[in-house]
Amino acid sequence: MLESLPSWDREQVCRTLKEMTLPIKRSEPARGPSNAPVRLDDPRLYFSRELSWLEFNDRVLDEAYDVTNPLLERVKFVAIHGTNLDEYFMIRVAGLVQQVEAGVHLPSLDGRLPTEELHAISARLRIALPRRQALMRDCLLPELARNGIVVHAYDEIDEEGRRSLRQTFEERIFPVLTPLGVDQAHPFPYISNLSLSLGVELIGGAAADRQVRFARVKVPQSLPRFVKIPGPIGELHFVLLEEVISHNLDDLFPGMKVVSAHAFRVTRDADLDIQEDEAGDLLAVIESELRKRRFGEPVRLEAARSMPQTMRDLLLEALGLEPVDFYEIDGPLGISDFWSLATLDRPDLREPSFNPVLPPRLRDCTDMFAAIRQGDLLLHHPYDSFDPVVRFVEQAADDPSVLAIKQTLYRTSGTSPVVAALMKAVENGKQVAVVIELKARFDEENNIHWARRLERVGAHVIYGVPGLKTHSKVTLVVRDEPEGLRRYVHVGTGNYNEKTARIYTDFSLFTCRGEIGADVTDLFNTMTGFAKHERYRALMIAPTTMRRSFLDLIGREAEHARAGRPCGILAKMNSLCDGEIVRALYVASQAGVPIELLVRGICELRPGIPGISETIRVRSIVGRFLEHSRVFVFTNGGRREVLIGSADWMGRNFDRRVETVMPVDDPELQAMLCEEILATLLADTAKTRWMRSDGTYVRREPAAGELPFNAQDELLRRARSRD
């Protein structure tokens, strides 16, 4: 597998593999960071979940600073940073606010109370946000202009451009606007979630009427944020919609004098309040809650730097917010809208396009079931095409020998070919059962749409499991074959979404192993009926067996270390946020187990603490593709165990979700995962950041004389070479 690498890449990967397989030395007796013994639940050993997430979002922003990324990719990372932060406030910050209002005084693992977390978040963002705005103002916008994509300030537009904008305002914008004044007869208007507004100061036109009044003008979300104006051929010239409105406000307030106008934006609690034990119809309850989402309590006020203190105070009071909830923005608000610039048709300013490939076994394959009978099949998306996953369901829908199809759906696309195949299967007389998670945050409306479509054609639709979210990514196909019934299974680490499968890294594993098929059958019977299975043959299932199974595997590595046998843990996930798992990893580290953790996002564990976690290294890769796959490797005295699945090491995944983790037993597939894919990721020196014991991150630098090694680029290169 490594022969195709350039020599310097091959040497780097081989060196990484050697580090992973060195014999383990017996460690000295564990010593704490001080002479006194340290309890493993000591808050000093944990990093704040909330601040760890902000560290992750800072790593996203770092990619916008990275000049080795194409320009529009850098703009994309800024937009992602803004979108991420919006969701963070709508869910995480809103949850902390609710705890404060409810009088909750329970500290988190790191010892902070909810009020302390909120102040720490606010302090941290007052450093990060000016950094982001400065990047846009001083670097990205000028660089875009040099490449023919110009976002103008209104004042710098020439007379011809202003005439064009005036015409656009009169014909396309003015009819949509609704000015809302505030006085005794007009109460403060409702400001919807994430909507952009202008706060306008006005005085009467008569000399005797000098009272300053306040009005709100909503910037319509139904109109493009970037208003196009004529420019030289081959160039794109825009003005922000709010600037066009603010420079034409006289038309909205005839007889009044506009003193000033300032943009502001409100973020509200968007988490759904669902009492399932009281819900006779979960679908109806969620639809009702979705209508309420835009009316959630305010949690953040963003405003232009130019906004005067009097207007800030008025808005804070009207919204019931404190100064700690106010964020001054020097530059455009609603930075997530810059997605529209990032997706402009300028391939010269974007990463080169690529076509995912098919593995050799599927190149000329017309029968997915025959291919799976040859042996377990592993795909690595987006390098490997997602088409075989779609084809698996489509073939099952058409195959006369298929009797039943069962599938979980957490997030899927708006034009899902997988769901279309399931509906076709029903029409072809198959028994189809679909567990759709209606509570998949921000995908509730999409999932309600598909649930209704599937129900209309006659599929059995189950809205998840009461009290849990169904996060498993599993498909079961039951086929009548000459030897008897055979069960075919697909288990993934990502969603059944052909669009995100091109930008998220995930694994798909197909198998017809009998014990896996039996376990998945039991899992579906648990989700769709009243069956309760506490034991499974091969799979780890949350919330029943997964937590205990992972704790046992970690503990077993510690026993191997104490006995001087080969040991080690290599785990890749999105987040590590569970006190019991972290304590188990600390115990394993004290026993001398080398532990490599690839954690893209939140990590509450502190690596490198003497006597506690000195054998643990944590790294995060943030690059072109979102690292979404979950893989767990245990050396096990030389009898390696490898697993993939849907679960991160988080309390919610272990205790409040239905999750599936599956063993990868085929030696060739184990080698593909460990020696080819994971080793390449571990060798990365271009997009990797090391986590330090204080919770901060630092870029990993290439060794002296070496070029940066980009693991995702290398995996793309290998995929192209197989095409």
Structural class: alpha/beta
- What is the total tally of β strands? 29
- State the distance separating the first and last CA atoms: 15 Å
- The helical percent reads 25-40%
- Kindly state the mean pLDDT as a whole number? 90
Query: Given the structure, what is the number of helices?
Result: 19
Cα-atom radius of gyration: 28 Å
Q: Mind summarizing the main beta sheet?
A: 10 strands, mixed
Shape summary: globular
Uncertain residue segments? 1-10, 16-35
Beta fraction of the residues?
15-25%
Account of the 3D structure:
- The protein is an alpha/beta fold and 723 residues long.
- The protein is globular and about 90 Å long.
- Helices cover 37% and strands 21% of the residues.
- Helix 3 (71-101) runs antiparallel to helix 4 and helix 11 runs parallel beside helix 12 (417-427).
- Residues 1-10 and 16-35 have low confidence and may be disordered.
- A hairpin with an 8-residue loop joins strand 3 (196-204) and strand 4 (213-218).
- The longest helix has 33 residues, at 114-146.
- The strands form five sheets. Strands 14, 18, 19, 21, 22, 24, 25, 27, 28 and 29 form a ten-stranded mixed beta sheet that branches. Strands 10, 11, 12, 13, 15, 16, 17 and 23 form an eight-stranded mixed beta sheet that branches.
- The protein contains 19 helices and 29 strands.
